[in-house]
Amino acid sequence: MSSTRDTSADVAEEPLVPTAYALPADPLFSSQFNLLNTGQTGGIAGIDLNVTGVWDDYTGAGVTVGIIDDGVSHTHADLAANYDTSIDNDSRGNDGDAMAEGSDAHGTAVAGIIAADDNGFGSVGVAFDATIAGFRMGFGADGTLGQITENLRLQTSVDISNNSWGFGGFFSDNFKSSAFAPHATALEEAVATGRDGLGTVWVFAAGNSRADGDDVNYHNFQNSRFTIAVAAAEDDGDITFYSTPGAAVITTAPVAAGGGSGGVITTDREGSAGYVSGDFVNGFNGTSAATPMVSGVTALILEANPDLGYRDVQEILAYSSRRIDAGNSGWALNAAGDWNGGGLHVSHDFGFGLVDALAAVRLAESWRDQSTHANEFSVGASRSPFLTIANNATVTDTITITDAIDLEWVEVDINIDHSWIGDLVVTLTSPDGTTSTLVDRPGLSAGSQWGAGQDDINFVLTSARHWGEDAVGDWTLSISDHYAEDSGRLLSWSLDLYGDPADGDDDYIYTDEYGLVAAGDPQRRTLSDDGGSDRINAAALTGAALIDLTAGAAGALAGQTFTIADGTVIEEAIAGDGADTLLGNAVANDLNGARGNDVLDGGAGDDTLTGGAGADLFRLTVGEGGDTITDFDVGLDALELGGSGAIRSADDFVAAGVDGADGFDVTLDDGAVLSLLGVLAADLGELLISFVDAPELSSETVIESAGAVTLLENTAGAYVVEAGGVRTGITRDGGAVTGDSYAGWSMIHAEGLGGGGFQLLWQRTNGDYTMWETDGAGAYVKYYSVDPPWIMEAASGVDIDGDGIIGEPEKPETVIESAGAVTLLENTAG
Q1: Type and span of the H or E element at 66
Q2: 288 annotated active-site
Q3: Global pTM?
Q4: Active site annotation includes 492
Q5: Which stretches make up the P/Homo B domain (predicted)?
């Protein structure tokens, strides 16, 4: 047996395209479509790693990536600064230096994709400040299983291990065999002990043998639940003609330009020693190139959150990958319920989709779990049915699982006695109806119409397609024979399911894809949960979100409505990069605005509020409990206090508080305590605070009440709207809006918005009009100019301008000419 690699590197000269963005100055960057695809190689703009928006925060610093490959030219000007010679290894040359020698070139190209320095020279890597180290081995006749074992065992010293290699043949690298048992042990040892028990993250190339009828499930390196198998896509989003498919593929990276035959730009051995004459190669491709992209993204993930377990990294990549090539018939939705309101999209070609660095990093920042080898949970059962597999027939067998588990990986250890495995298709169907194809006529291809003629399958097959599903129920194994010769038997099989104990505490993840999937599936727009401590994680959203945890209240995510179902109680929520509004319910909530200028209101209960980056507004009301603000930034963030008679100024606020052990504690009118963690009284000289009285229930002025929303001016002169018996004060920049707020302008009409906010029409004394939009809490969002108000009257049914006519005013009748016996007129309709 010998290991194989993709060494093709089709070199083409491409003109450099200047960019106006504040991006790396490395001269080859503008041609690196995998990092930023503008269509420069003829592909589709946006089919890239979505990584440039990450680099302001994370560049891989402090994360070490091991590269098991042939040698790495670590003196290369684009690699030297990031290379660690103290931990590298050469198992082929039996020394401590993984320097490229002889015909080595593959490892140098891989290294540049991961961590080529942003030094203004050459290309740039995905994680250009990550540390890399080579672990040299030979390929083909130059390699041995012992070399691989040695290097695998050394991966406990790195955070991530990149493996752009694999074995040929079908079921050859079998971890049940004595030859490969040491490799299986090394993989498991690294996830158990690497990173101080958090686990080394294994990243493997899916392979380049699609045309040979190969599958990642025929290889235990690629299909191990300890590894991340990476597929390769073209720059237009199609799967490449060579990328090996399978139910164990996790994610995909873009490597191929020009219809799949081209590749990416990366480092090459200096001079003429590498693929081409020069220090960089344009055209490095295959899943060998896709894998280091995912390793680089993983370095960004671990810099963002070093406390993640290796299983967390796998799950983050699954839940953040985005669907491409939407017309591909291989896409399916599994039966999970925690991704964008429903199931995950899964594919035997793409795994969970194209890796998305920005979404993955945002999830990593906000991740609350720590899933490791030590706390992995499993359930399973086995059967020995000795079922005959007749020619051109199908047999099935079932295992029933009764124990609940938060499901991640599925393993099927199968033993089939058959004299021609190329006849066989093996599938596994979950209780929820999701099907994984585990064996698909090995070797069947354009050059082999009968497939592989070898005997028997005694192998561990795996699937990630059931991630997040309910494991309880009947799991059905199906084996089909597709030829009139060579029958066999299913001797035995076992089903092992891996994940976390089902504790009822759920994380519901929302990404920008919610806008697409919720538009086509209205059921995704309502979140239902049956108990436990639950969290909405919308950290991967890039636009503004309105998350209202009150059951039945209207919210909005990614341009689609979002509502908590009646009877459902969600305790926590975290938003994304937009200017978000987070509103709590009656229980103690934990709300986090993350990035953007956010509004946080915990409502009733003792809540914990975190604004995150940006200028945030924290809204508090006397009588709704005592809140803790974890990150109040004096002079940037603002407070809005409602319903207080005792605290009416910044001085009152300071006088009502004391410096406590953890920050400044303010006692409110009702005795509840507001805590500003990390803040002292001496820090409050630039406190931004405003005050909102509850809208008066009497002695107010009704401005307009003809429609569904009543517009009032309360006794303090502030504008208030009433809809459905609920009154909401209008605010801007944390303060109440009054009739005196804008000289010459008066608010004359209010209407409700579908997303829970309001439209407010202003009129100026000179006859101009402008429109405001607010969120559901009455806070100003935006304004725009409008034509005369009668344009709105037909929709609202309200006579806004008071002329007694709904809609366009009638024109006066005009006499054009009446000198003769016939009078010519223009009537009111013109």
Answers
A1: strand 64-69
A2: yes
A3: 0.82
A4: no
A5: 379-503
